[in-house]
Design a protein that fits this description.
By secondary structure, the protein is α+β, with helices and mostly antiparallel strands. Helix content is about 50%, strand content about 25%. The protein contains four helices and two strands, in the order ββαααα. The chain has a two-stranded antiparallel ribbon. Helix 2 (about 45-60) packs across helix 4.
Length: about 100
């Protein structure tokens, strides 16, 4: 299985306390069933990236600036959980990668 790494363009989002922040990120994921990924989703790479970007903006929006600056590890864990939850097996159409 191949690990895919995508650099994410800088994202501008707003924290819970209405502060605009710019976030840099790298997205990496592993396709567990390449045939299913290609056949189930028209452009699975773009789909995974959009899920990750949406999750990133959502998670940042749930935290104050102070929390974003201090709790990066916790935010990263929450992002991983959110993206994994959406792309887990059995959740259509995300049943081919982790």
């Amino acid at each position: 299985m191949r690990v895919v790494t995508n650099p994410i363009e800088q994202q501008e989002t707003i924290t819970r306390d209405s502060v605009t922040v710019k976030v840099n990120a790298v997205l990496w994921y592993r396709v567990e069933d390449p045939q299913k990924a290609v056949l189930t989703v028209e452009n699975f790479r773009a789909a995974v990236q959009q899920v990750a970007l949406t999750s990133l903006r959502n998670v940042i929006g749930q935290h104050d600036l102070d929390e974003v600056l201090k709790a990066r590890d916790q935010i990263n864990a929450l992002l991983k959980k959110n993206v994994t939850e959406v792309t887990r097996p059995g959740v259509w159409p995300w049943s081919c990668w982790k």
